[in-house]
Design goal:
alpha/beta; homodimer; 344 residues; 13 helices
């Protein structure tokens, strides 16, 4: 099956050259002797060839193998590490990571479009992330951002996404017309496994925080992507519908689906079939999170677990037109700043 | 459709007479002036008639309306409140709650079988819960217990269930041959909604803690029920299979399904269909959590969201024999102390 264009809305730069990790280690070393260490943005010296090598052998190769065209690309989520250090640590680290994403997209403008990490930090108002969002979108043509609902690395010490402290960020997102993908970083809490229970739990929590808040009333054009197929939400759609009804909220169809989109990072056929059966096609964006959480080949199918395009191809309920929406149309609508000229 | 017997493995006494709440309020008042308050077990004066009224108008009525026979019944989960007060607070409260469950089951021996709350408390080793488990099982003929993976009310400050601090409890469970249902209590963290994101996130986290630990190697006959349809697990079965494989663990079928059971508290047809399609029937126990998390009627079907028997009845893939397993056989196997004479 071939569609006009396949846009993968969820990819992270998980294969960065080693200089990136070295920069981060230097930050940690400085913080070890002084938790209030300010430091400076400094520089990470990486050649274009090094970036090419890190991409062409990995994400670009898999794009070609799987027949996808463009990945909406952001810094490695598990490395965002908002809980590490202080406000300055996160700011400089985030700027470096976003600069690097811009370079990847400059080298492969037909294959990658940039999404920003935000310099969130525990105890620092989300408003402080607005400047980096503006820098990325206005100066560097980024088309969206990743927003973490837990900067404490699995201890959930932050405010809910329904809290007004997030409003300055939402206001700017609306003004710039960019969506946020909800995404936590690594868990430093033994109770949670980063790419399993932590990611999925955060998706579910964030969804519920938002639908049981005033956020979408106050920002009716805000666009939120809940990744990993929405965590537990579609599987428990009846529970969430029932809870909304019990507590006097409007039905999810009215209160949530005008603002919330789910991605397709669900790594088996039956899970994808459920997602496509529960959530309206206009609220689903194709994604694989390649190269990310699960890297192996499923012995039951002989294909990569995260080759999610196959599951959508194989789904028998949706029409070709609906699959086009999921593969391309919805991403163009949600990421309205994605330029046509960026893509083949 | 009619089966030999329908056993609902997941019901809480959510409709207790007001004296129960009053006892708890007195505990809280005493703690407000002295967090180290010890107090005493004291007594909660409730007549048999008051218990009858609280049960007959509610759980018993719904059992009859829905055609279920026996509910495996435990104290109200959201009221366990392990984070409140200290070790003594939880001990006395738990003993009272378990005593009350015993009384319900004495009044309706054909309709309810008792499962214990445990007196877990933050910072107190799980070993300290062994005495109450023994009291309930050996002296009061309880057939299982509820085990919380988070006594901190949504802040996840405890050890993982894979930690050896839980081993004395597992050892006693194995010796007594009683299962534990994983169940958190209310969230006091604004980030989580108790019966939505908190319950489901805890189910998912607990599953992953256990399957990525040595617990089932060290206790090959331990029996664990992950409620609410396993949280996000069946929907993300591919992700969990892939993560296990990436990290060198045995496949879930070998490492998890000899010890873990999922209940059917999934409140819509498509969700139940997925559960029944992913998880082998021998690992599924019928449950509704009635009267619990979601109390309303689904306007799309005209039936209660939590009338989960209907969804299983309506499932077209499983055979009658497999449905019998889910409705009765598996519960008898897992709750091996359930006496035949207890039921009709």
């Amino acid at each position: 099956m071939r569609y006009i264009m396949i846009i993968d809305c969820h990819g992270h730069y998980t294969t960065t050259p080693p200089q990136v990790g070295e920069y981060r280690e230097k930050q940690k070393t400085a913080l070890a002797s002084n938790p209030h260490h300010v430091g400076e943005k400094g520089s990470i010296i990486i050649s274009d060839d090094e970036i090419r090598e890190s991409i062409e052998k990995n994400q670009l190769r898999l794009q070609q193998e799987r027949g996808t065209d463009l990945t909406i690309f952001s810094p490695r989520a598990s490395w965002m590490g908002h809980h590490i250090g202080n406000e300055n640590t996160s700011r400089f680290w985030t700027e470096q990571q976003n600069d690097l994403i811009r370079r990847v997209c400059d080298l492969y403008p037909s294959n990658f479009a940039p999404v920003a990490q935000l310099p969130q930090s525990p105890g620092v108002p989300p408003e402080k992330s607005v400047a980096e969002l503006v820098r990325c979108v206005e100066k560097m043509e980024f088309i969206g951002c990743n927003l973490s609902p837990d900067t404490s690395g699995g201890y959930w010490r932050d405010a809910s996404l329904g809290d007004r402290c997030f409003y300055p960020l939402y206001e700017k997102m609306v003004e710039l017309d960019v969506p946020a993908m909800i995404h936590v970083s690594a868990s430093c809490n033994d109770c949670f496994h980063t790419t399993g229970s932590h990611y999925l739990g955060a998706d579910t929590a964030a969804f519920q925080q938002l639908v049981m808040s005033d956020v979408f009333k106050d920002f009716p054009t805000l666009k939120i992507i809940v990744p990993h197929g929405g965590g537990a939400v579609p599987y428990h759609w009846g529970r969430f519908r029932g809870l909304m009804q019990d507590q006097g909220f409007a039905p999810l169809e009215e209160s949530a689906l005008k603002n919330i989109y789910f991605d397709t990072c669900v790594y088996h056929q039956k899970g994808i079939d459920l997602l496509l059966d529960i959530v309206p096609p206009e609220n689903i964006l194709f994604a694989s999170e390649m190269i990310g959480a699960v890297r192996g080949i499923d012995p039951e199918t002989g294909y990569y677990f995260d080759d999610t395009k196959r599951y959508i191809d194989n789904n028998t309920k949706l029409s070709a037109e609906q699959k086009n929406q999921i593969f391309e149309g919805n991403a163009r609508r949600v990421f309205s700043r994605l330029k046509i000229s960026d893509v083949k």
